[in-house]
Fold this sequence. Notes:
Elements: E1 9-11, E2 14-16, E3 20-22, H1 38-49, E4 54-61, E5 74-75, H2 82-92, E6 98-104, E7 120-122, E8 126-127, E9 133-136, H3 139-158, E10 163-168, H4 173-178, H5 193-196, H6 198-211, E11 217-224, H7 234-246, E12 251-256, H8 278-285, E13 292-294, H9 301-309, E14 315-318, H10 320-324, H11 328-333, H12 348-351, H13 353-356, E15 384-388, H14 392-403, E16 407-412, H15 420-424, H16 433-447, E17 450-453, H17 459-465, E18 469-472, E19 476-478, E20 493-494, H18 496-500, E21 510-514, H19 518-527, E22 535-540, H20 551-563, E23 567-570, E24 572-577, E25 581-586, E26 592-596, E27 599-602, E28 606-608, E29 623-625, H21 635-648
Parallel strand pairs: 3-4, 3-14, 4-5, 4-6, 6-10, 7-9, 10-11, 11-12, 12-13, 13-14, 15-16, 15-18, 16-17, 18-29, 20-27, 21-22, 21-27, 22-23
Antiparallel strand pairs: 1-2, 8-9, 19-28, 24-25, 25-26
Amino acid sequence: MYNLLFTPGKIGTLTIPNRIAMTAASASLSQPDGTMTEEMLAYYEARAKGGVGLIITEMVCVDEDRGVLFPRELNAAREENIPSFRRLADRVHPYGTKIFAQLFHPGANADPKLNPCLPLVSASAATGKKRGQAVEASREDIADIVQKFGQAARRIQESGFDGVEVHAAHHYFLHSFLSPVTNHRQDEYGGSLENRTRILREIVEAIRAACGRDFPLMFRISIEEYIGPKGYHGDTGIKICQLLEGWGVDAINTTASGTDSKLSQSVEPMYYPQGWRKHLAKAVKGVVSIPVLSVALIRDPAYAEKLLEDGVLDFAASVRAHLADPQWAEKARTGREEDILPCISCMACFAKYDSEGHITCAVNPETGYEAHLPPLPQDGSGRLVVVLGAGPAGLEGAWMAARRGFRVILFEKADQAGGQLRLAALAPRKEKILWLLDSLLHRCRQAGVDLRLGHAPTLDELAALAPYAILDATGSKPARPAGIPGALDSPLVCTPPEVLTEAVDIREESVVVVGSGMTGLETAEVLSDRSRNNAVLVLEAAPRLAPGVQGSNRNAVTAVLEVNNVVLLTGRTLTRIGEDRVWFADSQTGEEYVYPCDRVVLALGTVPSRPYGDQLAGLCDRVVSIGDAVTGGQIWDAVHQGYHAARAL
C-alpha cells in the first residue's frame, strides 16, 4: 500500500530506514542540568520502537549563560553531558531509528529567571515572550554563540547521534536575524538578505569545522512568517534555503510562522486541515536538490504517502501524530491504520505543561508517563463492569476495562455514542473531534465492549446485573446559576447546546453571550455568521478574554469574531436578566450597565447531571465517577480520568 513511505531515504551520507520523521517538541522530561532521565529515555524509545525512521529531539541548549528557555531542557553546552546523550542514542538505535539533536538558542525569548548572564541578546533590542529584555547582540556575542553551536554539535556527534538540526525558525535567536521585523542592525548582520543570513553561514562553517563534512546537518526554516507586510514571505524563505544548500547543508525542515504570529501557524490548532501549508515545502523542493522535510499537519499515513507521491516533500514529518500514537508508523506498515490513535490537534499537549510539568496527550494518557506505567494487568477474569455514559470518559474507561479482561456493558441514554464529543464537533472547523470518537468506538468494538445505545438503565436493572464495578460517566448539563436573577426563568435565556444543535434558530437578533471559554467563543462564532445577521456581544467577568484557554485555540476563534464584528467585553459580570434586556457590572468598580437584547446565551460551564443521585453507591462497592460527572473539563481530563479509573479497578 505504501510504495514510498517505508522506503529508505538519505540525508547527506546517512540512510534513514523510512520516510517518517518525528520532529521536535519540548517534552520537559530531562534533569534540571539537561541530562537524561528514565522518563526521557522511555519517551523517545517508545517512538523508536513504534517504527519512526528519524527522531529529531526537542530543543537542545547550546548556551547556558543566556540561552535557556525551559527549566528542564536538554543541554549540550557541557562536556560532561556527552555520556547522557549517548544513553539516548543507545536506546533508539537498536530499533533502526536514527536520531538528530535540535540545536537552538531562544534569544530574546529566553527565560530571564533561568539565565545567569543578563541582559539577553537578539538581533536587535527586543522584549521576549517571557518578558525578558534583550539587547542587540554585539559582534563578540555573535561570534561566541556561533562557536557554541559548533561545539554543541561536536558533543552531539561524540555522543553517537546521527546528525543535528539547527533551529533557525519561530522567531528564536537565529530567526531574529532573518526577519526584517526583528533585525534593525546597521552592520554586516543587518540590511540585505546576504547580511541577515550571515550568521547561518557562520554556524554552518563552525559545525563543519568541529564535526567534518560527513556529519549530517539540517536547518529548520520558517519559509513564510505570516505576520503581515513587515515580515518576510515565501520568496525570501525559498532564497534562504537555496543559500543553505549552497553552503553545504544536507537537508531543510520547512516550517512557518513563529512566536510573533498571533495565529501561531508553527503549531496549528484544530481548525487547520491536513496539508494546509504543503505548498511551502513543495516550493522549496522545487528549487533545491537536498531532501526536504515538512510537518504540513500530517495525521493520516495515506495522506503522507500522497505527499511523497506528489513530490511535495522527501520525509513526512510530525510530532503530535507520534505523541498520540507512538506506534503510528508500525500500525501503518502492517495495515492497521484503523488502530491508530488520532491526533486531533487539540493543543492539550502544550496547554497542560503548567499543570503536568511536561508533555502529555489528550487522546493517549500514557504519553509522558511511559517510564512509570507497568504493563496493564490481565486480571478482569470476566467480572462485570458497568459504564454509564458513552462520552469520552465512558468510552475510554470501557475499552480499557475490557482490555484488562473485564466483561463490560456500556449504557448510553442517547441513540448515538459520543456525548460532549458530538456536541463539540458541531462547532465550526472542529470535525477532527469525530476522529477521536470514531477511534474510541473502534477500540470498544475491538475489545468486546457491549454497547447499549438508547437506554438508561434503572436502579433495579443495575442491581439485577450485580456489577463488580460501576464507572459513572453520566456527564453534565449547562449551568444556569440560580444566583443570577432571570437565569432560570427569563424567556431570553438559552444555552450553547441549543444553539449548536439548532434546537433554537437565532437570526436577525441582538445576542449576548455570557462567558468567553471555548464554548462561549465558538457559540459566538456560529451566531455571528453573516448568513444569520445577528449582532453579538460577548461578556467575560475576568480581566482577560478566554481565561485558561490555550493561546492558539483562542486566537484562531477571536480572529474570526473580529472579522464578524463581534464585540468582546472583559471585566464585565452579569448581574440580572430581564424580559428584553440584561444588566452587567464592571467587575472592579461595580458600576452597572444595561443592555437591551433579544437573546442571552449562558456559556458558564456545566454541572454534573447526576441522574442517579447518590444511589449508585448502594449497588456495589466500587463506584467511580469520571469526566463531567465529576466536574466540567476538557477532552484531556475526560480521557485521562476514564483511563486511570479502569486501571485502578
